Amino acid sequence: MILSFQQGIDNEILRKKSEPVAKPTGKIKKFLKNMEKEMLSQNGVGLAAPQVGHNIRIIIVRFNPGKPEQMIIPMLNPEILHFSEEKYEDEEGCLSIPDIWGIVERPKEIIVSFLTAKGAPQTLKLSDLNARIIQHELDHLDGILFVDRAKSTRKKTKEEKGQEI
């Protein structure tokens, strides 16, 4: 393991609001590469900097997981500009809360703005799982865990472990 995962509902790092990043330095770019390796090693579809011990506004996401159009995108200072009124419920898990799944209601579509790893501003309109991944990871940047939003939770089975958002 390159980075150290933070775990637990009462973890102080996971419960703290993260600070913006001024610009993508060489150190930040190396951190992003390490975050990507860790996310993939855990078969995750998203990872926020607080989950690996850093309270900075950085996430890395894997859009369209398992599909030919899959892509991994690092985001610095992501911000959701718009939430759709339409919502839907789905089950979520988290690398920081192992062994738990929960039903969470979230907006179906979002518009998110962020800086790329090169510092370029970008805006994306996302829906369904891709929108859910962003919302889940941005919650981490604000000290919110999916269990805080879950309508219900349950223990994972052995087969389900490693399939977290």
Short description:
This protein has helices at 26-41, 128-141, 146-149; strands spanning 46-48, 58-63, 71-83, 87-93, 100-107, 109-115, 121-127, 152-155.
Topology, element by element:
Blueprint: H1 26-41, E1 46-48, E2 58-63, E3 71-83, E4 87-93, E5 100-107, E6 109-115, E7 121-127, H2 128-141, H3 146-149, E8 152-155
Antiparallel strand pairs: 1-2, 2-3, 3-6, 4-5, 5-8, 6-7
Mind explaining what this structure looks like?
The chain has helices at residues 26-41, 128-141, 146-149, and strands at residues 46-48, 58-63, 71-83, 87-93, 100-107, 109-115, 121-127, 152-155. The chain has 165 residues and is α+β, with helices and mostly antiparallel strands. The chain has a single domain, classed as Peptide deformylase (Peptide Deformylase, Alpha-Beta Complex), CATH 3.90.45.10. It has a 5-stranded antiparallel beta sheet. Strand 4 and strand 5 (100-107) form a beta hairpin. The model has no long low-confidence stretch (mean pLDDT 93).
Which keywords apply here?
165 residues; alpha+beta; three-stranded antiparallel beta sheet; 3 helices; globular
What proportion of the residues is helical, as a percent range? Answer: 10-25%
The helix count comes to 3
CATH superfamily: Peptide deformylase
CATH topology: Peptide Deformylase
Shape: globular
